[in-house]
Amino acid sequence: MEAAQPGRRSTRDWLVDVLVFVIGFGFTVYVTYDLLQPVPSFVPEQAGNPGWLIWLDFVCATVAAIGLWWRRTRLMIPLAIFCVAISSFTVSAGFTLLIVLFTVAVHRRFPVLAVFFLGITATNGIFPFLRPENGRHYWETVAWGSLFLTIVALWGMVIRARRQLVASYRDRAERAEAEQQLRVAQARSVERNRIAREMHDVLAHRISLLSLHAGALEIKPDASPDEVTRAAGVIRASAHQALQDLREVIGVLRDERAEGVPEPPQPTLGALTALADESRSAGVKVSLDVAVEPDGVPDGTGRTAYRIVQEGLTNARKHAPGTTVRVNVAGSAGDGLVIDIRNPWPVGGLTATIPGTGTGLIGLTERAVLAGGRLSHGRTPQNEFALTAWLPWPT
């Protein structure tokens, strides 16, 4: 609001500009015509002014009135200076001077308005000497002029303050809208990451079982028809279950639920036995020891623990096939829940007969941290691969 920006005028700007020009120039014409009469009726106290002064007043007031068309541009300051110069003797430019003062108060900062106000107030003190009014005392003329100038300046300052307040509200609304859009974008990104984690945790386990069963058929080309039939049945059932899990995950992620309500599929510690049996059916040796009562563990902690065990078994099938995986779950309320998954380090180093994305452990670490816990993994001095997690278990 420091200065009006150049550009095309709106319909409202045209209407306002026409109105102020008609008021300013119309007042100039009317006062000049009245002063040229033998006995002025509108400004009788100015009777007896010489003709040259009346016409000089008219010319200067006309120039100022024409300048009103550019009062909102960079010509505002030159127009204001010109008005200060002519305000010491002009009568017919009275309304034009007030319009310029009001415009400066609305569109310029207070220091600019203060300088202009002081200048025009000073010339108001000179006016009674150059254009003395019949029947009025000097201080009466100065007081009335100062009163009108003060009222107009204060009015313009109020309008400026109101516009600034509206502009600040509009800016806050725009920032709030932009922040809302940013929050929506962040929510979408979080949701995409959540979908990726759920897809990995749910499907990696099933697909790894499919790969193991298919590999068993591949290495036994002389398998009997019954064995092939059983293996094909297991593959079909695993594939069907994988599709079912995928369908459930997508349905859950699309379904809007109240915050904190469990969303299926959300297996907890009670499903670890079924998870171990699935791995054993694929030929993985699993030793499962759950030293806690599954029903006593909070659902959120139980779900995170289930995903950790699921990913641990999947990694063991990928990188250490044929080894025995030991899964121990222990803890207590207040001390936390500890999940420890270990398998012998494979001879020849880590292998990956089943391809993977390499993000499973990263996702598990993120899950554990988000749950308020921690997770570590790596080779131990006993030449084992250990995946250990601690999750909070409040009392």
TrEMBL record:
It is an enzyme of class 2 (transferase). Its EC number is 2.7.13.3. The chain crosses the membrane at residues 14-32, 52-70, 77-104, 110-130, 142-159. Pfam families: HisKA_3. It catalyses: ATP + protein L-histidine = ADP + protein N-phospho-L-histidine. It comes from the Bacteria. Residues 191-256 form the Signal transduction histidine kinase subgroup 3 dimerisation and phosphoacceptor domain. InterPro entries: HATPase_C_sf, Sensor_HK_TwoCompSys, Sig_transdc_His_kin_sub3_dim/P. One of its GO terms (molecular function) is kinase activity. The keyword Methyltransferase does not apply. Keywords: ATP-binding, Kinase, Membrane, Nucleotide-binding, Phosphoprotein, Transferase, Transmembrane, Transmembrane helix, Two-component regulatory system. This is histidine kinase. It comes from Paractinoplanes bogorensis.
